[in-house]
């Protein structure tokens, strides 16, 4: 047993579902009837705000351009991104009613009969954003070749992933804060290295145990197994794990090196015309907040003074 699983909640203290029920009864999260879709309390939101301020402080002098895209992105953009090839099981597309009055009457009839009325809806131009950085790459490509030294972005978005679960740390709609570095391989790797050091420092300053580990994305299907192995062999994805609600600790930050995948796909050029490399560091904001509630208790006012001092200054 490694150091982290020893600090994970003991089986007798309950697992994910018990933690979820605890969060509901303390009013930290509000139940909606759909797994992974919750209301958040004022305290929960304030913790996220304070945590984000801390993240900005750790980003330090790095001059980042901030862009907040909405939680929906153009459907053709997701189609071209390759997301549907790798993660069809997670994607969500917005559908809408586009019929006339006769169709509307049918829809109401179906509703009244308890029939499936969604057949009367059609796909719109909008899909739900699966990761905060997806809309960024085509945006940067449109600006033309990058300046010398590359670029750095500070992003945040609500993200959707169809992975309903009773683990409160696995939501269907959650927020991701991301820093994205685009530039030469050396610039991009140095960026990721520095966050691999800053990330654990930041999390430990909040009185949370953590550990960095090699990881892979949940690529779909049999071909996906190979992609996942490849990602691991090349050390392209690392995660910062914190015990939250399971015996297995939860990925709360992720550190991804895409090589020139997005640069080539979208035509992002370095100043010398070669395809840009990119890396992103993602902060799962709900997961970090849940880790804090798990380790320090349901009442923010009762959290250790040292933790409160770091968050509230
Ligand atoms: P996991 O292996 O737990 O599914 P992931 O590898 O899919 O995580 P990423 O795709 O790297 O996660 O997403 C970046 C960050 O977003 C993660 O480190 C995590 O903190 C957060 N995140 C991912 N999926 C969810 C989810 N379903 N609910 C809440 N936060 C999530
Ligand atoms: Zn990203
Ligand atoms: Mg996942």
UniProtKB/TrEMBL annotation:
InterPro entries named in the record: aa-tRNA-synth_II, aa-tRNA-synth_II/BPL/LPL
SUPFAM superfamilies (alphabetical): Class II aaRS and biotin synthetases
Originating organism: Kaistia soli DSM 19436
Molecular function GO terms recorded: aminoacyl-tRNA ligase activity
Domain Aminoacyl-transfer RNA synthetases class-II family profile: 159-304
Protein name: Seryl-tRNA synthetase
Classification via CDD domains: Gly_His_Pro_Ser_Thr_tRS_core
Keyword presence, Ligase: yes
Keywords on record: Aminoacyl-tRNA synthetase, Ligase
